[in-house]
Amino acid sequence: MKTAFYKYLGLGLIAFTLTTASAQDKHDVSREQKLQQLKKDLNLTDDQVLKIKQIEDSYNDEKLELKKKMKEVRQKEFNEINAVFTPEQKATLKELHAKKHKNRKGAN
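^ Periplasmic heavy metal sensor, sequence as received from the core. Prediction below:
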């Protein structure tokens, strides 16, 4: 039971720290879609949508700093948890990660 817990915890931490090159593009598309849906649902004017975009943009630097800090915290957490694993568990975790990554590539 504990072994499964650590496997999933490790996999979760690895998956959580991975990033993709297209994340920003997806974010921009998602942001625009959300704004357009909000515009439709609330009957916003173009000026209101522009103001919302400007407000969101004004927080970009602050959000970026928080993201950097979270990445550092996650890495520290991962390192501490990883130190708990035996060499055999680390090897198994590496295999599980490779298998998961292979399956993800095969799904594309």
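Residues 2-107 form one domain.
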